[in-house]
Specification:
18% helix, three-stranded antiparallel sheet, 2 helices, elongated, single chain, 203 residues
Length: 203
């Protein structure tokens, strides 16, 4: 139980919302934290945060043999589960149609358990209330995005400046007729500076 609550807390802190479902397995209650990224809450009473149902959907990749190419290819399926106040339904993994880009679910290939609780056995909780979002709260990092952008910019400039300073500056003394020629550094290149010219690195 506490491990699942910890997972739910981590979900809420990182994404703004947390979701926990429960069910009975072999006569024992089981609690499970669900990644809210894959969930859609369907409200019975939104103000009271009372769920009527919870839909869980996510894509699942599978390697399958292609008769056309004679090679293995990745085929994407969709997992769907719908938990309501009366039942819990899980569909068979359904492939995504290549042309339409959607999964066409067949209710005849779904497994339904009628629990008859009269309420949805799931809890949807906000990490921090967000008035601008009906489904998700605010994550722990809310309000720090500008600061993180500034840190990223400063870090990038520091790295760029450091790398530029590490690379030594080449000082060339070449004859006038050779001054417009390009410079290619490295062990695979030679510099032509003329009889009176010189090349060295600035220490």
């Amino acid at each position: 139980f506490f491990r699942q609550i910890k997972r739910a807390r981590n979900h809420g802190g990182s994404m703004g919302s947390a979701c926990v479902i429960f069910y009975f397995q072999n006569g024992k209650p089981v609690f499970r934290a669900i990644n809210p990224k894959y969930c859609t809450p369907i409200w019975q009473d939104e103000d009271a945060r009372e769920l009527r149902a919870l839909k869980i959907e996510y894509k699942v990749p599978r390697e399958e043999f292609s008769k056309d190419s004679g090679k293995a290819k990745t085929v994407w399926y969709v997992y769907r589960r719908l938990i309501t106040d009366q039942s819990d339904t899980i569909w068979e993994l359904t492939p995504i149609h290549e042309q339409r880009g959607l999964a066409e679910f067949d209710d005849d290939k779904a497994s339904t358990v009628v629990h008859g609780y009269g309420f949805c056995p799931a809890e949807w909780a906000y990490n921090v209330e967000d008035d601008d979002n009906d489904y998700d709260g605010a994550p722990d990092c809310d309000g720090t995005y500008d600061l993180m952008d500034a840190i990223d910019i400063l870090w990038s400039q520091a790295n760029k400046g450091t790398k530029a300073n590490i690379d030594p500056t080449l000082v060339l003394k070449v004859e006038k007729m050779l001054s417009k020629a390009g410079v290619y550094k490295g062990s695979g290149h030679a510099l032509t500076v003329g009889a009176t010219g010189d090349a060295k690195y600035l220490e």
